[in-house]
Each structure stands twice: as C-alpha cells, then as structure tokens.
Amino acid sequence: MTDSIRRTLKDSKKARWTALVILSFTMFAGYMFTEVISPLKPIMERSLGMNSTDYGFITSAYGIFNVFLAMLIFVGIFLDKFGIRISTTVSALIMIIGGIIKYAAFKGLIGNPEEIISILKLEISTQVFWAGFGFALFGVGVEYAGITVSKAVAKWFKGREMALAMGMQVAIARLGSFAPLAFGAKIANRYDVPTTILIVIVFLIVGLFGFLYYNRIDKKLDSQVKDEIDKPKDDEFKLSDLLVIIGNRGFWLIALLCVFFYSTVFPFYKYGPDLMVNKFGVSENWAGLLPSLVPFGTMLLTPIFGSIYDNKGRGASIMILGAVLLFIVHTVFYIPFITHVVAAFFNVILLGIAFSLVPSAMWPSVPKVIPEKQLGSAFALIFWVQNFGLWGIPLAVGIVLDKTNPGVAEAKNAGEMVNYNYQSTWTIFVALTVLALLVSLWLKAEDKRKGYGLELPNIKK
Prior knowledge:
Elements: H1 2-5, H2 13-34, H3 41-47, H4 52-60, H5 64-68, H6 71-82, H7 84-107, E1 116-119, E2 122-125, H8 126-157, H9 162-190, H10 193-224, H11 226-229, H12 241-246, H13 249-262, H14 266-278, H15 289-312, H16 315-334, H17 341-369, H18 375-404, H19 408-413, H20 423-450
Antiparallel strand pairs: 1-2
Helix pairs in contact: 2-8, 2-9, 2-10, 4-8, 4-18, 6-7, 6-8, 6-18, 7-8, 7-10, 8-9, 8-18, 9-10, 9-15, 9-17, 13-17, 13-18, 13-20, 14-15, 14-18, 15-17, 16-17, 16-20, 18-20
C-alpha cells in the first residue's frame, strides 16, 4: 500500500519518456545550429570570400567563452545551486541571443567584410569576428543546456533505463546534426547562408517553449518527492565538492576520453564535407550527405549499445572498442591513395558505429564515478575539458590547411577549380585517436582497481 502511495511521475514509463522527448527536442535544435554552417565551407569561400582560417575561427569560437572564461564551470555550479528549471530557461535564451548575433553578422547587419582586425596574430574581418562572437555565446548556451539535460535525465532515469535514456537523448539530438549536414548546402545554394542560419534559429525558439513546458512536469515531480529534495545540509552541494571531483582520477580519465574522442568527431562535421569535395570528388550540394550518416547512424545504434550497457554491463570495454574503430577510420581518411567515394561511404559508416559505442557507455558511467549531488558540476567540468578540443582543433585544422595549401583559398575565391590537400592536416585526427585509445585502456584498468562498476549493468535486478 505504501509503495502505491509513494509512486511518482518518474515511476510512470510514459511520463519519464515524455520528459525525455521534450528535453531532447531542444538539444535537437541546438545541434542543428551547431552544425548549420558545417557543409557550407565551399559556399562561404565562393560567395563571402572567406578562407579556411576564417572558417576555422568561426567554428572554433564555439568553445572560446566556455574555455577561457570558464563559463561551463560557472553554469555547472549555477545548475547545482539553483536547479534544473531555471537552467533550462536561461540556457535556451543564451542560445537564441547568440544565434541572432551570428545571423546578423552573416547578413551584414553587424561587422564589415572589408574591415580587418588582428586577434592573436590572426587577420580576420569584423564580420568574421562578430559571427564568431555570436557562435561563442551560443556555445555557452548549448553546453549549459547539455549539462542541464544530462542531470535531468539522470534525475528521471537513475536505477532504471538510464543508459538507454541517455542514448535516446543523444540520438534525437544528433538528428539535429544530420539535417544541416545532409541538406544545408542545398538550402544555402538555393537561398543564401544567412537564410539557412535563420531557419535554424526558429527551431531554437520552439525549443525554448519546449523547455518551458518541461519545467511544469519537473515542478510536479519535485512536489511529489519533496521529502527527497529537502535533504540535510550535509547532502547539499558545496564549493568544496569541486575539490572532491577534481581529485577523482576516474573522473579525469572520462573527461580526457571525452575531449580526445569528441575532438575527432565534431570537427569532422566541420571539415568532413570539404574533405568529400576535395579528396573524394563529391559535389558541394551533397558533400555533407556522407558525414550526415554519422549522426543518423548513431540515432539507431546509440540506444542499442546503451541498452546493452544497461542490461549486460561491459561499459569500459565498449569504450575501448569505440576508440579502436575511431583510429581505423581516421587512418583510412589520412591515407592519400584512398580516394574512391565508396571507401568514404563505408568509412563514415564505421565512424557512426564508433560514435555510438563510446558515448553510449561514457555518459552513463559518470554517475557511477561521481555522487548525484555533484553531477551538475561534474558534467560541467567534463564539458569544459571537452571544449578545449572543440575550440582548438577546428582552429588548428583551418590554420594548418591554409599553411599547407598556399594560394588555394585565393584561387577558390577567384572561381578556379582547385583542391585542398588534406593529408598533413589529417595527422591531427589520427594522433587524437591514439590518445583516446590509450585513455580508454587506462580507464578500464582504473575501474578494475577502484571498483566503479563500469563493467556492471546499470539496471538493478
């Protein structure tokens, strides 16, 4: 009788999966905006006169505020102190404001393509600067939203289908990456780059309303578990808890795996379409179609691998397998004589499998290593470390690409049919996959030593 009285919304499968879908839609919109210009590099070079360094600056700006102003640390603490509902609203508003600034720069409403400034010895136009500034602000919002959603999913699904739920959330979100990669260049060629960006801003606004609706459900759940929320002060988050997180070696291994792994995947979204044009001879209208198979494939596979982790365990082993596949993928892209589009197709499929394996086990492993009251800050610190890669790698790739291909950007701007040689640039990705593999092996050894339970099932029988 007592059990029936104490049943809450999260005990209802329908309620918790409804909450998950609502949370996932806003992340879907966020991922759409993250990748909205990823397939547009050749179009931007031709129609806006930008080069690889300009493109690298804009795409790498995503992580600037998160890394150098440590915004992710602050928003993680803010989340733990003030809760999920305030964080959903604030993060969505930041995404929208950043998106509007980026749109205004590409539209020519702010900044000037002819006015050149120097930032850290990089010569860029004020138009490029403001596009990057808007994307940097958006990056704070979407990472803040990601941390908040991760904590919300853990709140609703802990002790239940947590890996499957996190896998489903990631899968739906990555559909947002698929859409612009697959169709963005076609839309931009039919209209223009600013219009393509504006379309996605509309999705961000709808996502804000989705978060507001979720907040009503979350408030009702909190009212049902009030005795669980009103915890003694010893169980509340304190700033000193950050020292506990930082001193946890398992946490750092997950964070390092995260930065090395994602630094080989998300920057691939940025440069993969251009690689398809320049190395594999794909037309620019459809250059993003092959890279778009990566998030599309993860939609199907991540929940499956997550369910395996929930029911069978083997989380650390799953991460190792994903890292091995990732090394194979980027080695194949590096090899200069592999230029057939069929080889690119199968390699992208393999990348999709790797990208499903690691996150399906990595994110559900965090609550096994870190106590629940510290989860918001732990996720924030992981995302902060990850953002070093999301900032540095796209910028480095753009600079190296220009340095190793002198005169190519200018020739493309002039309408000449010339190609970039990506071989030297791709060594960056190969090196990162080696580091990811080494860290995943270390994490499994640490789990065996500390008994985190990464090889054990998530669902408690």
